[in-house]
Please model this.
Amino acid sequence: MALIVQKFGGTSVANPQKIKAVAERVMGYRRKGHRMVVVLSAMAGETNRFVELANQMQAIPDPREMDVLLATGEQATVALFAMAVKEAGLDAISLLGDQVKITTDRMHTKARIKQIDAALINRHLDAGKIVVVAGFQGVSEDGDLTTLGRGGSDTTAVALAAALKADECEIYTDVEGVYTTDPNICSTARKIDRISYDEMLELASLGAKVLDIRSVGFAKRYKVPVHVRSTFTETEGTWVVEEDKEMESNPVSGVTCSKNEARITIARVPDVPGTASRVFNPITSQGIVVDMIIQNTSIEGHTDLTFTVPKGDLKKTLAIVEPVAADIGAERVLSQENIAKVSVVGVGMKNNAGVAARMFEAMAAENINILMISTSEIKISCVIEDKYGELAVRVLHDAFGLDMPPPKKK
Ligand code: ADP
Ligand code: ASP
Ligand code: MG
Model:
């Protein structure tokens, strides 16, 4: 008898039929005697619909109220799911983030989980119930509802698996696992059988939304093996696990594209000590994640400072940056939303020279202009115009031999 945490994403619970089908799948495990904890997302499209509604109310929607609104999507699916289980004659109970006591910080719309109380869930499991937990939500120490950021139900699931010391954590979605790139963009993408936490962290942070980055962080920290697989088939999916030697054989194991960022340039910034800190401190203290940063060589005592932030935070960032720019005597602030960041990721890159050169060459062959570049030990990213995003993914996937089946081991 195992304790299994299973998470089902929005497309898996998109309508009543699908909710019933997922309930059947879970009940199959329960009937075999397993202790089942299920984490659900909102129905596909619901969270986006709420965001649009909020945007009709306020230019920058109040984050606390946004969370009260967003949390209702998951509240609906867990209740419907529990009803479906009861109708089939088994017992289930739905629980919201504040009932479980998924305690988070106060960073509304992107809160971090600080603690989970396993007691209530364990009591219901002991009573034989299927415990259905609303994904994506928690409660701050002062009792306000919070949400964990888009894709956050994955994080709820992995954090629960860690807190409950579950035997298995399965993330069910609309593709059969983690692929070498988004299978919906590149038809030659291949499913990866096993991937390291570190590679998955990079893929997730660079746009492979199949797993939320924070869920991978929890999995790595608490050594939770995560099985990503399809809701609609029985096929074995991808295991996200600790790195092993075999994973280092390919320099690149995945290609990603993210269109979630926007670029801001502060032009002609006086080149004096303390400027970067004056610009970035007020941004990051608002919980806005600054990604790539480029400062040009100083010409006549002035430089340009360019950086990227999540598109959803652009308005808020500009509101912070514009007065600071005026204050420090910069010439003007420019922003650009039509950008994409394409990246190649692989632990094997550590031992393989020439990956960057091959990446730039492949992009040049298609005449794709590179606007910004950043590298780390296991990834290289380029910012390009967003209209070339999908093309760049396919070209890079091919250039790094990912289109072909992996070489047979001797
Ligand atoms: P869910 O609603 O189940 O959480 P998501 O839409 O968040 O599902 O994530 C699954 C989607 O992630 C897939 O449909 C696919 O288009 C996208 N995706 C992007 N990159 C990858 C990748 N490398 N492997 C698998 N899926 C990917
Ligand atoms: N419903 C939330 C979203 O769409 C959380 C999730 O699905 O993981 O981002
Ligand atoms: Mg998701």
